[in-house]
Amino acid sequence: MFGLTEGGSSVLVRVHHFYHYFYLPVTDGIQPEALAEAINRRLWNDKTVPRDRTVVTNVEITTKRSIMYFIPGDPEVKFYKITLLNPRHTKDVARILQRGGLSVKKPNDVTAKLPELPTFESTLDYLLRFMIEVGLVGCSWLTLPAGKYTITEHKKSLLQVEIDVHANDIIAHNPEGKWLRTAPLRRLSFDIECAGRKGIFPEPEHDKVIQIANYVWDHGHKKPIAQVVFTLKSCAAIVGADVVSYENEEELLSAWARFVRLTDPDILTGYNIVNFDLPYLLDRAAQLKVADFPLLGRMIGQPTTMRKTRMSSSAFGTHESHAFSMHGRVIFDMLQLITREYKLRSYSLNSVSAEFLGQQKEDVHYSIIGDLQRGDEQTRRRLAVYCLKDALLPVRLMDKLMSLTNYMEMARVTGIPLGWLVSRGHMIKVVSLLHRKSHLVDLLIPDIKRSGPEGGGGDGPQFEGATVIKPEKGYYKDPIATLDFASLYPSIIMAHNLCYSTLVRPVHLAHMKPEDLSKSPSGASFVKRSVKKGILTKILEELLAARKQAKKDLKAAKDPFLQSVLNGRQLALKISANAVYGFTGASVGKLPCMDISASTTAYGRQMIDNTRLEVEKRYKGATVIYGDTDSVMIKFGNGKSLEECMRLGEEAAEAISSIFPKPVKLEFEKCYYPYLLISKKRYAGLLWTNTEKYDKMDCKGIEAVRRDNCRLVANVISSVLEFLLKKRDLQQAISMVKKVISDLLQNKIDVSLLVVSKSLTKTDYENKQAHVVLAEKLRKRDPGTAPAIGDRVPYVITKGRKNEPAYSRAEDPLYVLERNIPIDNNYYLENMLRKPLERIFEPVMKSSVNSLFVGEHTRTISVVTPKKGGMAKYTKVRLKCLGCKAPINEGALCAYCVPKEAEHYTKNLNTMVKLEKAYSSLWTECQRCMGDICHDVLCSNGDCPIFYRRRKAQIDLNAASEKVSRFGLDW
Amino acid sequence: MHSLEPTPPNGNGQESHPTVRVVSEIDLSPAKRFILPKKKKYEPQYAHVYFSRLKSLTAHVLKSAKLTFGEGEEGKLQYSKRIADIASKDEMETVVVGVIFRHMKSKPSILAQYDVPSHELIPAPPDRATCTYPRDDDEVFIEDEYGRCALDLSQLDSAVATLSLVTGFVLALKGHEDRRTGSFKVNAISYAGQAPQKSLPELPGDKFICITSALSFGKADGDVLAAELLMEFLRGSAGEDPEGSTCANIVQLIVAGNSVPQLEDTESGPSAVLAAHRPLKSGEKERVAAPIVEVDRFLSVIASSLPVAVMPGEADPVNYLLPQQPFHRCLLPSSSRNENLARVPNPFECSVDKRVILGTSGQPVTDFALYEDQSSVMKDGKEAGKLRPSGEKVLDILTLMLQNRHLAPTCPDTLASFPFSDGSDPFVLESTPHVFFAGNQREYASRLVRTPHVQTQASSGSSMDIDGVQGGEKTVRIVSVPRFDETGQVVLVNLRTLDCIVREFALTM
Ligand code: SF4
Ligand SMILES: [Zn+2]
Ligand SMILES: [Zn+2]
């Protein structure tokens, strides 16, 4: 075990005398000793172990029960408890027994062949077995009593102290009261820069690692302990940071590995380090044969290894990832964590820090990185400052999102080590809970043959969330009260005592008293709580009680750090409680039981239905307009005030709760007023929890987060919602939309609103997609800066030639800006704006939605004349009068317009003034963002809302100023 | 018109009859540095401005720091060539020179505008005029071309720290690096000190320049008569003049911006001042002539008897980025015909009888004041929410600008400016003027700043001096020129004595 003392010294505790074991149902007449002997012999014969090695050290008979099924009379069953010397052989031994055919000598010297037998708990991880037995949970404290341990002289690890102890002497503490505090885990956040070749994403076979920036920062501390950047070639000093430079790359890599060993962090973090930085470093070091580089773990002489894995989950599909063995350090990649827990438009570090830290981040494109590296110590310093920023952001994100605190609490609540939360799927949490509880009541968990991919584990049953009450689409001007079932699935499981251990098999039904049973709407039967309380019920009761307590403590807590710990705790408890249902339904999980999960959802549906009946029975004129998985939306009637609806909602929740078994509880929390119901799981409304002021505008399932939408769509939709919900003004919403459409068709929409971006992946090359075709085009234009695989390709759709398909009309937004290339406005209207707008207006306008897209405002005018090809350069552009466009030879106006010079002058001046304002605020913003006022901004962050706009302001202002200049200056 | 022909000096001003105007030698050519090239490039980034500012000022700041703090001494005090180098100086007392950058959360920011819910598809730039920069957790940095360093100001008097450490000043700071926080703990500040000043040749008699600002012709509640009175006064026909021959001795009028009122509606912008240039719609007949026409008329009348320099200001129909360029001829058609009228830029500098007069229409001062502690800036009753500094504060700010040799330090960060890139920052003060003013202020105030002769230890590197040695005695009249539309006041500066008086024109007189 790796840990810290209260004082912050790192300790390695080596536990001795703890042996792994598992269970097997007893076969009559076979003695434990004979079984042990038979297994050992078989292992020798199979040459799994050498002849002198005893694998199974002990077999004894115990009485337990299986967790599966309630058997009438609930009899105890005899099991062999098979103990092994080394946990490594567990699988082999279990397999021998599962396959059957093992010859065992009976006492009467007859040899019996064992049939295929189910094993129990052989798949439980050795470490978890140990923790359960000792009563230890993840990230918690333990005491080693004085005199019961020995300190090792000859250390095998980098930790400050190494201790040997007997398993029985460990005292584990529940993370409560004085043991609530967390240890100040040391974090090392790092980021690397590689010198790419022009136009090619860096590859470890060719491209050097040129910088590694690091922040060392203990968890819970206000300031970092160290900021260090390792650079290849000299680099000018940076205030507040240590700069260490090397002339050759091998030295750089080996120095960094030394640095990791020296600072000896508990946690290694960064952004995309699992799939970029770490693999790159390891591959590069292998390429350069830096032998001591992989020694990044805490055990002396044990190199870090890496293997490719496939992670699959319903949320992200299957994707490649890496797994590392790095003893004693948890690899906590903020990118993985954020993709797992937040749904965002983009997961680039830029967008994520804009989203959570409220700051844009200047982004230096890797094609420039090479130039900066080849420059002098000043340009390399520039790069180092940038790299340091990228190393800092992950830690700041971690703190801002409370990720580490929350994960540590999750480790405590579910009882698993911190590292498993990061590296394994969701299932392991429930596995741990289930084993812990079963262990206490002598229930055994059968081993299930697993199929399906390793590591991930599905996310739960797919038949959940069937809509129970079809949505009555519409725009509701009356308040809509929402009744929610609090923790629906957990409370159903508890209310009906659903569990593995209470499920009765059909064959046994006849032997049971009907009053002891309850039959679920899906047809499965469970014994009542009075007969036997289910394990799941017990687990859930404890989790929910603990959550109540945590919330109470949270209210009382004063210290902000403790508050965050307690908040993390209650969140972890909630998540864990909800995970139980998913666990029972995961078909590739550790212990799926469709009878439980199907019963749970069936009860849920029934409850929603009953609620509807009850509401409509009790309240005249009330209708339930929509019912989702765990909530119903009620319209109490026309003309009811918000206050009245809240009162009625409160009352209904109270009254209807009583028709359901405890602890099912219906709660009234909010009203939507007004409410726009678009379709199932798509709605928006102003959310009220008091009558004074609405809390917020709540939108579910509505456009705008999708990255392949341009900003225009998001902005228009949110404006429409503002008008409809906040102002309750349909007319204004309509005229706003018409104005946008008209502006769009007349080229008045800022290009920055029209940019779409998609990332270029390997497999994209075959099919004709806009971003792929464009990437190819860009490569021909300039291989140096063209996007490479993994890059996002931003583009806009231009008019192009007649009949040219849309995918080949994609163009680089900057190129479009600079050359004044016309945009295909119709494409944006038809393919981007139309659908979302129709969806949102349909409930409001019904069949007249189409009027948005026809009429006066849809007239197009084309004003932009493309300056295409080489010829344009040589044909002289005739000057035109700025008043009437008549051709003129010089100056600004034709003779006819000269009398109105002041008017025309002012008009042009106004345009320029507006652009000047935009120009200066945009460019000063970038200068600030860069965090440096004496150097040019090099940013390539296309995710930033002003990235294209600032370039456009430049171009437009130059043009406007040129026009104003034509009026002449007389100084 | 490039500059007015220098008029031969009339040596006998004192004896002349009130209607015979005293004339002076007026040289407008110093204003040329504020005129932008015909072909303007809005391409280079703002970094160049800071960079050239550092280039022009670092040597001066360093020199004066050595006078203040003493030369470097092994083991005791050292001068760090680059800010980045302090990291290696082991907390020893160190002097660094660089440009200040104050990071304030509530500076007007266009990115912040994106978070404000609005019906605009794309947010408009923030209105700088209505912003304040409240200052609770500012972070202050010093930066040179090699890097920036956070400052720890806990050892400084907070008022000093606030007023002196404003974005854009080039300063020398003494202190040491705090290894723990990586910031530089400042214990003393040193300025460049005033630039050299041309010596002031004797004038035989009193001569005045008159400075006014914010005439705001056409302002809804404007006092039309006050402007008439001012006009009469300047033409010398105001009847009994209590100051005796003052008005006949006025040799130049400077209009320091805002001849037309600020328009609420940004959509119509400066064009509304031109309303009368359009054919009037029915029902508009009785409206008074457009503001700019009034301005033109006023200037024509004055220019017929007195040289006038008209500077643009924030509200005027010219470009927005500083330096603002002169009014276009077509906006002031009749007055432009008079040779006596000079349409000049803002900022503006000229010399009148070898007195160097420099000033702005007030934006640099107003913006600077926004960095101030709010409590020290008085709230203006009329325009709620808009903070404008008191006269004394304006003078303090002007003094600081002189000491730091820069007349618009907050350009380009919070004060919009042209992206200069030719390696020069025209707002750097290469020399100290004799009269330094800021127009469009809330109230009149004035102060004579005398800098006594400083004994230089080593005057070897004084090649920058114009006349006399660097550190010679300097005298500057600094003036906060009040808004005429609010106070009815104009300022008269006596070029012989640099004395300053204020005259008020209002119906109540
Ligand atoms: S575009 Fe400007 S503000 Fe946006 S990230 Fe880049 S430098 Fe920062
Ligand atoms: Zn990186
Ligand atoms: Zn014309």
UniProtKB/TrEMBL annotation, chain A:
<keyword id="KW-0269">Exonuclease</keyword>
<dbReference type="InterPro" id="IPR006172">
    <property type="entry name" value="DNA-dir_DNA_pol_B"/>
</dbReference>
<dbReference type="Pfam" id="PF00136">
    <property type="entry name" value="DNA_pol_B"/>
</dbReference>
<dbReference type="InterPro" id="IPR012337">
    <property type="entry name" value="RNaseH-like_sf"/>
</dbReference>
<dbReference type="GO" id="GO:0043625">
    <property type="term" value="C:delta DNA polymerase complex"/>
</dbReference>
<keyword id="KW-0862">Zinc</keyword>
<keyword id="KW-0408">Iron</keyword>
<dbReference type="GO" id="GO:0003887">
    <property type="term" value="F:DNA-directed DNA polymerase activity"/>
</dbReference>
<dbReference type="GO" id="GO:0006297">
    <property type="term" value="P:nucleotide-excision repair, DNA gap filling"/>
</dbReference>
<dbReference type="GO" id="GO:0051539">
    <property type="term" value="F:4 iron, 4 sulfur cluster binding"/>
</dbReference>
<keyword id="KW-0539">Nucleus</keyword>
<dbReference type="Pfam" id="PF14260">
    <property type="entry name" value="zf-C4pol"/>
</dbReference>
<dbReference type="GO" id="GO:0008270">
    <property type="term" value="F:zinc ion binding"/>
</dbReference>
<keyword id="KW-0235">DNA replication</keyword>
<dbReference type="InterPro" id="IPR036397">
    <property type="entry name" value="RNaseH_sf"/>
</dbReference>
<dbReference type="GO" id="GO:0006287">
    <property type="term" value="P:base-excision repair, gap-filling"/>
</dbReference>
<feature type="domain" description="DNA-directed DNA polymerase family B exonuclease">
    <location>
        <begin position="119"/>
        <end position="352"/>
    </location>
</feature>
<dbReference type="InterPro" id="IPR023211">
    <property type="entry name" value="DNA_pol_palm_dom_sf"/>
</dbReference>
<dbReference type="GO" id="GO:0000166">
    <property type="term" value="F:nucleotide binding"/>
</dbReference>
<dbReference type="Pfam" id="PF03104">
    <property type="entry name" value="DNA_pol_B_exo1"/>
</dbReference>
<protein>
    <recommendedName>
        <fullName>DNA polymerase</fullName>
        <ecNumber>2.7.7.7</ecNumber>
    </recommendedName>
</protein>
<keyword id="KW-0239">DNA-directed DNA polymerase</keyword>
From TrEMBL, chain B:
<feature type="domain" description="DNA polymerase alpha/delta/epsilon subunit B">
    <location>
        <begin position="223"/>
        <end position="444"/>
    </location>
</feature>
<protein>
    <recommendedName>
        <fullName>DNA polymerase delta small subunit</fullName>
    </recommendedName>
</protein>
<dbReference type="InterPro" id="IPR040663">
    <property type="entry name" value="DNA_pol_D_N"/>
</dbReference>
<dbReference type="InterPro" id="IPR024826">
    <property type="entry name" value="DNA_pol_delta/II_ssu"/>
</dbReference>
<dbReference type="GO" id="GO:0043625">
    <property type="term" value="C:delta DNA polymerase complex"/>
</dbReference>
<keyword id="KW-0235">DNA replication</keyword>
<feature type="domain" description="DNA polymerase delta subunit OB-fold">
    <location>
        <begin position="45"/>
        <end position="188"/>
    </location>
</feature>
<dbReference type="GO" id="GO:0006271">
    <property type="term" value="P:DNA strand elongation involved in DNA replication"/>
</dbReference>
<dbReference type="InterPro" id="IPR007185">
    <property type="entry name" value="DNA_pol_a/d/e_bsu"/>
</dbReference>
<dbReference type="Pfam" id="PF18018">
    <property type="entry name" value="DNA_pol_D_N"/>
</dbReference>
<comment type="similarity">
    <text>Belongs to the DNA polymerase delta/II small subunit family.</text>
</comment>
<dbReference type="GO" id="GO:0003677">
    <property type="term" value="F:DNA binding"/>
</dbReference>
<dbReference type="Pfam" id="PF04042">
    <property type="entry name" value="DNA_pol_E_B"/>
</dbReference>
